[in-house]
Design goal:
Shape: globular
CATH superfamily of the largest domain: PPM-type phosphatase domain
Strand content: 15-25%
Distance between the termini: 89 Å
Number of domains: 3
Largest sheet: 5 strands, antiparallel
Oligomer: single chain
């Protein structure tokens, strides 16, 4: 999959120890290769080791070099904010632990830190301390970051926040929309502390190159008694906003023709047609270049050949399948041979869908269903760790293999945080999951979260326990407003399957709440409660007979009523 996201810029930098015996500043700019550039962006960061600390220089170097290295090792599917915050949290813990050998935190590994990540058409900023980030736009220089320092006297400032100072510092994060021509300056206080703002603005606004501006800033602060460092970046161009160009990238390969058993494309022989819908066609194929290895070939529908949003989602399926590794997630397959057509190859999973399995097992053992729910949860949690929501979990998208292992086989509706940050000139359409199993927030137009996938898992669990029933019955499909959803009444699974313990209904009712914030805090809490109910769940009162088995209840009620009438009639005789 090729993603449009190339930013072109020029950069320059300056660093000097000044009158001090060593330079405790550190800075870096990294522009990754074309493969990572769209998903991870360009990173620039600067740090000023605290001079009062015994290892300020080491702290600055560790934070800058560690951030640049570790940020690009985080999953491409993660949002910039997620990647940056997790890397900085780990770096801070290491710096703080290194400083524990000193009598005070100030005598340990402490540094300021400011990072700028330019991705697609957005600038992401991470900041702690009193190093700074400026942006020049329209001839006006704006200080983007806020100093985390308290002035004690005219000559003395005390840092209130820094990396390595405390175990859990508050690190500022925010984002800005990029424009072509934007100029950014990252600097330590040896630069901005000695150049008046009007002069700083004049130097940055000049028509000189980025390197010449960086040198000029260093020279203007030559009277500084501190280390002085800066980075200057100027955005030349942003990802192409031409819809036609983006479309050509996505549709560079032709759609394959409708295939029949026996046909061969790219050394893939069609053995069987699995399905053909308005969205795609699925085939079982044999890889003739790999000893006939069986694979599943998914081909896009020609009905969407002029729809870039559909094409992007189709390409994403392979992208997700190649970057996830979990026994409950089907893997995509990348062959050495370059394809001549647009299609996606997945591993073949032998078995039956959970929809078909439920038809064959209308009243399965409760412990079997809990085991299956645990496998689904494990696979979905692996996606969530990649900052990916599945959004279309349903029995027909999950296959139970002949070895008893479940696999989620379809990623066509997934939302990937890191990819959603990449701007496109076309509108992305979020593919709504199957109504029966998707959370209410999809129909209400509110932002889905991991708890939306939890709702789907709980619905599938209920479906398996009750032989294909829905927890809110036929009224679920008709609901369309918040009021509609809030008036729906949960139907206990035990009312349909008497073998379901009451506490199972307690767990499912919570996970199936109409309000996302009322559901379980995590997938692990949900599955743990299903497997090992706590005392509060075990103490759940049994359902009244009217709800546990309405048919029996009314039969008994009718019998009692008739008996009472009969006795009264006899007495009156």
């Amino acid at each position: 999959m090729h993603l449009s996201g190339r930013i072109e810029l020029t950069s320059g930098h300056f660093t000097s120890a000044g009158p001090k015996p060593r330079n405790e500043d550190c800075l870096a700019v990294r522009i990754p290769d074309d493969q990572l550039l769209p998903t991870k962006g360009i990173v620039a960061c600067i740090a000023d080791g605290v001079s009062a600390a015994s290892a300020g220089k080491e702290a600055a170097e560790a934070s800058v070099l560690g951030f640049v290295a570790d940020y690009f090792e985080t999953p491409e599917s993660w949002e910039v904010k997620t990647s940056g915050q997790r890397v900085l949290t780990a770096l801070n813990r290491w710096l703080f632990s290194q400083g524990q050998g000193f009598s005070t935190a100030e005598k340990g590994c402490v540094t300021t830190f400011t990072a700028l990540v330019l991705k697609s058409r957005t600038a992401h900023i991470f900041h702690v301390g009193d190093s700074r980030l400026y942006r020049l736009r329209g001839g006006e220089l704006e200080q983007v970051t806020r100093d985390h320092a308290a002035r004690i006297s005219a000559d003395t400032c005390h840092l209130t926040r820094a990396l390595g100072l405390t175990l859990s510092p508050r690190i500022d994060y925010h984002s800005l929309t990029l424009e072509e021509g934007d100029r950014f300056v990252l600097s330590t206080d040896g630069i901005h502390g000695f150049i008046p703002h009007p002069q700083l603005e004049s130097l940055v606004r000049s028509g000189a190159s980025s390197q010449a501006i960086a040198d000029a800033l260093g020279e203007a602060a030559s009277a500084s008694d501190d280390n002085r460092s800066c980075i200057v970046l100027e955005v030349g161009s942003l990802p192409d906003g031409d819809k036609d160009d983006i479309f050509r990238q996505l549709s560079a390969l032709p759609f394959p023709p409708d295939l029949s058993p026996g046909q061969v494309i790219d050394d893939l022989r069609v053995e069987k047609i699995l399905s053909a819908s308005k969205n795609s066609q699925l085939y079982v194929v044999s890889d003739l270049a790999d000893d006939g290895r069986p694979l599943i070939l998914k081909a896009p529908s020609v009905s969407f050949s002029d729809n870039p949003s559909y094409l992007e989602r189709f390409a994403m399926e392979e992208w997700i399948g190649l970057r996830t590794d979990n026994p409950h997630l089907a893997k995509a397959v990348r062959r050495k041979q370059r394809p001549r057509f647009l299609y996606c190859l997945m591993e073949q999973v032998n078995g039956i869908t959970l929809g078909r399995w439920t038809e064959n097992h209308p009243t399965p053992p409760v412990e079997t269903v809990i085991s299956l729910a645990g496998q689904i949860t494990d696979g979905v949690r692996a996606l969530h760790r990649k900052d990916t929501l599945h959004q279309d979990l349903k029995p027909d998208n999950i296959v139970l293999g002949e070895d008893g292992v479940l696999k989620i086989i379809d990623y066509g509706s997934c939302h990937v945080g890191g990819i959603s940050e990449i701007s496109t000139p076309f509108e992305r359409h979020s593919a709504l999951g199957t109504v029966d199993f998707s959370a209410p927030e999809y129909r209400l137009g509110t932002k889905p979260t991991t708890r939306s996938d939890l709702f789907s898992i709980a619905t599938i669990t209920y479906f398996l326990l009750t032989g294909g029933q829905h927890p809110y019955g036929p009224a679920w499909e008709r609901a369309s407003t918040t009021k509609d959803f809030l008036t729906l009444e949960y139907r206990p699974a035990a009312a349909i399957n008497p073998m379901v313990p009451p506490w199972i209904d307690g767990v499912l009712r919570k996970a199936l709440s109409m309000r996302p914030e009322s559901r379980h805090d995590s997938m692990s809490e949900f599955i743990h409660n299903l497997r090992k109910p706590g005392p509060e769940l075990l103490a759940t009162a049994p359902l009244p007979l009217a709800k546990r088995n309405p048919l029996v209840f009314w039969k008994v009620a009718a019998a009692i009523g008739f008996t009472g009438w009969l006795l009264t009639w006899i007495a009156l005789r």
